[in-house]
Specification:
four-stranded antiparallel beta sheet; 9 helices; alpha+beta; Alpha-Beta Plaits; elongated
């Protein structure tokens, strides 16, 4: 009995899918078009420029052994250096040097400072709607940052490995990803529509539905056939 019930429910779902095929396909097309329009016309392109800086460990000669203590000191030092890049003093200097029309908080939002795992490297990245400005800020930030390190620690143990370049392509635009996200959203919306129809419309509208779902002949049809046979016998 349970198996028949499960089969009936499955057939109901399939019937809904068949009867609402046009609606469901339309939903998917609409969502896909929305994803296309959003990705190509509404996403504001942003460009990211990155500079890589390297901390030079104190023990660089071949005849010296780098101890665990040295590694810990350098790890703490690189972490401290990365925080200095986001300090107000550095940001103010960059804004002043480039005559930028932005606040420290706005610049901080565009700035990303990352210490690469298991290395002595720091990446300074700036994201802006203008690729030239992104590169200019990153370069100036790198220079101001290095000067600040020398001023505070009186050390010259960090330098620029890869200088910031003007990015060719925006970093925040991926048309295929955006359209795929909207398509998946369309699938989810279509599934919700099917679920609502399934929950709300659970009535059997005609005799054929009984035969289709549970494979039982209706009493009315059986009675009609019986009467027909009786008449023929007479």
């Amino acid at each position: 009995m349970e198996k028949n019930s499960e089969n009936m429910e499955l057939k109901r779902i399939l019937d809904i899918l068949r009867s609402k095929t046009l609606l469901l396909v339309t939903i998917l097309i609409v969502f896909t078009l929305l994803g296309y329009v959003y990705s190509y016309y509404y996403v504001v392109p942003k460009y990211q420029s990155t500079a890589s800086l390297l901390l030079i460990p104190n023990n660089t000669e071949e005849d010296k052994t780098i101890t665990t203590t040295d590694l810990n000191i350098n790890s703490e030092l690189i972490s401290t250096y990365s925080n200095i890049a986001k300090q107000s003093r550095v940001l103010k200097q960059v804004i002043s040097n480039l005559n930028l029309e932005m606040t420290e908080q706005e610049l901080l939002k565009e700035l990303k400072v990352q210490v690469l795992s298991d290395t002595y490297m720091i990446e300074l990245s700036v994201t802006n709607t203008n690729p030239q400005i992104a590169a200019s800020i990153t370069k100036e930030l790198s220079n101001v940052f290095l000067e600040e390190i020398k001023s505070i620690y009186h050390l010259n143990n960090i330098g620029i490995v890869d200088e910031a370049q003007v990015p060719d392509e925006p970093s925040n635009i991926n048309h295929i990803r955006d359209i795929a996200i909207f398509f998946i959203a369309g699938l989810a919306f279509a599934a919700v529509i099917v679920a609502i129809i399934y929950i709300v419309d659970n009535t059997i509208k005609q005799e054929e539905d009984i035969e289709r779902y549970i494979k039982l002949k209706t009493i009315r049809k059986n009675t009609f056939k019986l009467k027909s046979k009786t008449r023929n016998c007479r």
